[in-house]
Amino acid sequence: MGSISLNQIASQLQKRGYIEIPHFLSQNTFAFKPKRQVIIGKHSVSIAPSPKYLQQYLSSLLGHKVVTKLIVLNHGDYVLLNSSLLKPFRGLIDLSDAKNTTGYLGFIKNQRETLQRYPTPKSLFLYTLPNPFIKYVDARVKGQVRYLFFA
Amino acid sequence: MRSALTLNSYAQYFFHKLIKYLLYIYAMVVTKYNTPFPHYVFTNFLASKKYSSLKRAVLNLKYTRFDSDLFSFYQSKNLLISKNKHIMQFCNTLLSQDLEVLFNKKLNGVVDVSAFIYKQSDYLLPHDDLITEADKKRKLAYIFYFSTLKKSQGGSLDLFSKNKVVKSMSPKENTLIVFDVSRHSFHQVSEVFKGKRVSLAGWFYG
């Protein structure tokens, strides 16, 4: 992780509503067994167990116990705006296979997308913006999109 | 004399076969389905000339790109304000279909119509079309196709039951599908992989 102070993080969050810290992780590999979770009209995803070492690292970084959810998206998966799946969270660690054309984390303001955050493997993304959703992962995407959400 | 009679009966036989074939190709056929929720499929909905004129009019419309969590497609403005006579004729044809009787629902004679184009990677995710505000009660939804796509090309209208697709209908040109709108009527337009899916779609109100 590069040198960026907590004050700088707080300042960016206040100004823009989000901050991306690339190269947060040095490695990206782990084993998991995802479980399907589909609610028609809300979301279609797989949920995998969160890597314990990342939960412990986030706890020590934030100074409190963290709640995490590892959301895995394959072709055809998505999280709609009206789903409550992402409601508790304010940050993610990107564990995606590779940069993809869709499967991005989007935010809505005044019925328009204000931000599209594309999968960026090994990065950390913090946000205070409301109304997140995850865009449908279309057939052009090679590999999985994986976001470890935390709060 | 006998040969003349035989020739005549053969001629009649082929004539009837030809009429049956032409009716199959050109006559409107209406099929009712009840699962997973009530819907009707009208094949050969418009006469050939009317269909071609309408298609030309629709392809010449101006489209705007719409992209959100739920969908990606190109859509025209609301065509009820269009002065195009072919589109107006289409609306009149729609309204004359006795859908109140077919669906046993009270309609108020108001219908929406917009044109949609789905290109490669476009889609419309699962939703039920239900709006229940007093002045905007959607009763029936419809789609009319100007494209024929194979299953492998995507763009199918998929109907859901208990979180699963239980019926998948690939677009076929000059086909109208009308279905009941309710809290059970979850449906989607599957991702288009190849080709273009052009349609008119909207709702009947009541």
Structure overview:
The complex is a heterodimer of chains A (151) and B (206). By secondary structure, chain A is α+β, with helices and mostly antiparallel strands. Helices cover 15% and strands 34% of the residues of chain A. Chain A has 2 helices and 11 strands; from the N terminus they run H-E-E-E-H-E-E-E-E-E-E-E-E. In chain A, the strands form 2 sheets. In chain A, strands 1, 2, 3, 4, 5, 6, 9 and 11 form an 8-stranded antiparallel sheet that branches. With 206 residues, chain B is α+β, with helices and mostly antiparallel strands. Chain B has 4 helices and 12 strands. In chain B, strand 8 and strand 9 (164-169) form a beta hairpin. The model of chain B has no long low-confidence stretch (mean pLDDT 89).
Helix content of chain B: 25-40%
Terminal residue distance of chain B: 66 Å
SS content category of chain A: alpha+beta
**Poorly predicted ranges of chain A:** none
Note the overall shape of chain B: globular
Helix-strand makeup class of chain B: alpha+beta
Number of helices of chain B: 4
Query: How many runs of DSSP E, i.e. beta strands of chain B?
Result: 12
What is the end-to-end distance of chain A? 20 Å
The major beta sheet of chain B can be summarized as: 12 strands, antiparallel
Order of helices and strands of chain B: HEEHEEHHEEEEEEEE
The chain pair with the largest interface is: A-B, 20 and 16 residues
For this structure, the quaternary state is heterodimer
* Number of helical elements of chain A: 2
Run of helices and strands of chain A: HEEEHEEEEEEEE
- What is the overall pLDDT average of chain A? 88
How much strand content do the residues of chain A show?
A: 25-35%
**Gyration radius over CA of chain B:** 20 Å
